[in-house]
Amino acid sequence: MPAKLEGPLRDLGSWKPEGCSITRALDVVGTRSAMLVLRESIYGTTRFDGFAARVGVTDAAAAAALRKLTEAGLLRKQPYREAGKRTRDEYVLTEMGRDLLPVIFALWQWGDKYLQDGVPPMQRVCETTGEPVRVELRSADGTQVELEDIQIRVNPDWRRARRARADNAGRGGNSQR
Q1: Neighbours of 91 (CB within 10 A)
Q2: For residues 124 and 82, what is the distance between their CA atoms, to the nearest angstrom?
Q3: Which pTM does this prediction carry?
Q4: b or e along 24-51 (b: 16 or more beta carbons within 10 Å of the residue's beta carbon)?
Q5: Which helix (H) or strand (E) holds 124?
Q6: Which of 3, 118, 133, 140 qualifies as a cystine partner to 150, CB 3.0-4.6 A?
Q7: SS3 state of residue 24
Q8: Per residue in 104-128, pLDDT tens?
Q9: Do 41 and 75 meet the contact criterion of CB atoms below 8 Å apart?
Q10: What does each C-alpha distance from 44 to 37, 67, 162 come to in angstroms?
């Protein structure tokens, strides 16, 4: 069973997913190179040569992925300098990048379950307890939630902000009026 759509969303033929957060997220991280650069950041890779070699892409592809992820705010540049060499940049995860970890771990978990013939090559465990780390859907109170128990509705704050932008645009974009 699918999620439950509320209100005007019930009629799938009457609306389009305008402003879809999934679409916007994929615009940033929806390439193989971007996801693998993020994986490498989790593993501790920070330097350009390391990303290019470990991801297995050309220098141009690695540079494009690093630039896009940095411009989007998922990575930040941090200068370093080896003795006798020029200053270069390392790339480290930002808070925004760390907030993407559940997405990356969910994809990894899914690949382990369905694409590894029952024996995944690596495990994710808590350093303190050694217990497996899993991504699950839970409500704010910690209750596990199944797809059938999820309701999806239009966010009234989004609707108000959208109307305010449209009103502002209708006045020539001058917010001083």
Answers
A1: 24
A2: 33
A3: 0.84
A4: eeeebbeeebbbbbbebbbeebbebebb
A5: none
A6: 3
A7: helix
A8: 999 999 999 999 998 999 999 999 9
A9: yes
A10: 10, 18, 40
